[in-house]
Design a protein that fits this description.
- The structure is a single chain.
- This protein is an all-alpha fold.
- Helix content is 78%, strand content 0%.
- The protein has nine helices and no strands.
- It has helices at 3-11, 15-37, 40-57, 67-91, 96-108, 115-121, 125-136, 141-148, 152-170.
- Helix 2 (15-37) crosses helix 4 (67-91) and helix 8 crosses helix 9.
- The chain is elongated, with a radius of gyration of 17 Å.
């Protein structure tokens, strides 16, 4: 059954159709969440939140684009919003240096993944997010700037920084 048919059934309250959508797309949503967040636990959280959000916004899918494209955009926005919320939460309790140390510990405890994925996780958060969105997910710098609420030049600079850091790590 096509995604569009499942979406139409899920829109009318068919939970089995929504479950089929979840099972079909959970891996991709998790992969995006993991690459952006750099943490398996946070990626699980983001992925769950994304599908809750999908259920809430399913009526807004109008079929003008492919469902996978729409879901991808929703997933990226959900991941970024979740990361911002988590960062705001921890900023209330910890000085910035403690957050950086926590992120470095999270990065060093990652499961065995592809070598490049492991190196990407070692990038600073903002640099990693820009790199993943541009190099892996195919977003243009203008789109990244809008999503992250930064200047286009900042997006380009972070991308360039990520490439340099990855080259150093690989040598």
């Amino acid at each position: 059954m096509s995604d569009e048919a499942l979406v139409n059934q899920a829109k009318s309250g068919n939970k089995a159709a929504f479950k089929a959508l979840y099972q079909r797309h959970q891996g991709r949503v998790y992969a995006i969440s993991f690459r952006l967040s750099g943490s398996h636990d946070h990626a699980d959280e983001i992925c769950q939140d994304c599908f809750v959000r999908l259920w809430q916004k399913l009526d807004q899918f109008n079929g003008e684009s492919q469902f996978t494209t729409w879901l991808h955009k929703l997933s990226v926005h959900q991941a970024i919003n979740s990361m911002k919320a988590k960062q705001r939460f921890w900023h209330r309790f910890l000085p910035d240096s403690n957050i950086a140390e926590e992120n470095e510990q999270d990065s060093s405890q990652q499961y065995e993944y592809h070598r490049l994925d492991k190196l990407i996780m070692k990038l600073p958060e903002r640099t990693r997010v820009v790199f993943v969105l541009s190099a892996i997910e195919g977003y243009q710098h203008q789109e990244i700037a809008q999503i992250l609420n930064i200047a286009v030049g900042t997006s380009k600079a972070q991308y360039h920084r990520a490439k340099q850091m990855l080259q150093e790590m690989l040598s």
